[in-house]
Amino acid sequence: MIAKKILVVDNEEYIQEVTKICLQTTAKWQVITASSGTECIQKAKTEKPDAILLDLMMPEMDGITTFKYLQASSITNQIPVILLTAKVQNSDHNPYTDLGIKATIGKPFSPLTLAAEIAQILGWSHEK
Fold first, then answer.
1. Rounded-to-integer distance, Cα 20 and Cα 33, Å
2. Domains along the sequence of the chain with CATH
3. What pLDDT, on the 0 to 100 scale, is given for residue 79?
4. Closest CA to 41 of 79, 82, 14
5. Choosing a second label site near 43 at 20 to 30 A (CA), which of 7, 8, 76, 97?
6. Better-scored residue on pLDDT, 95 or 113
7. 88-117 burial, b if ≥16 CB within 10 A, otherwise e?
8. Cα distance between residue 127 and residue 106, in whole Å
9. Taken in order 44, 113, 55, 39, is the CA torsion positive or negative?
10. Secondary structure class of 66 (helix, strand, coil)
C-alpha cells in the first residue's frame, strides 16, 4: 500500500513538528511541511500531496487566501484541504465548507487521533 502524502502548513514550527511526528507514527504517512501560504502553494504544485492541513491564521497570507490560490490552479484545485486552526466555529454550519474546504480541525488536537480524524473526513481507510 502506498503511503498518503500530507502537506502541513503552519507558521509555527512546533505545530509542524508535532503534526508531522504524529501522522508519521500513527498512520505511516509521508509528511511535508510549509511555513507560509506562498510556500504551501509552491510545494502543493511540486509535491502533489494527497491532502493539505492548512493553518487559518498566518502572517502575510492567511489560510483562506492560500486556499483560494490553490483552487485557482488546475494543478492544485483537486487536493482536499482541511483547516487546522485555533479559530473553530462552534455552530452547526461551518462557513469554510461553503468555500470547498473539507473540514476544520481545532487546535489543540489529539496527536493520537489526528490521523484517524483526517482519514474519516477524507474517506480514507486508516490502515497502515
1. 8
2. 5-122 (3.40.50.2300)
3. 97
4. 79
5. 97
6. 113
7. eeeeeeeebeeeebbbbbebebeeeebbee
8. 23
9. negative
10. helix
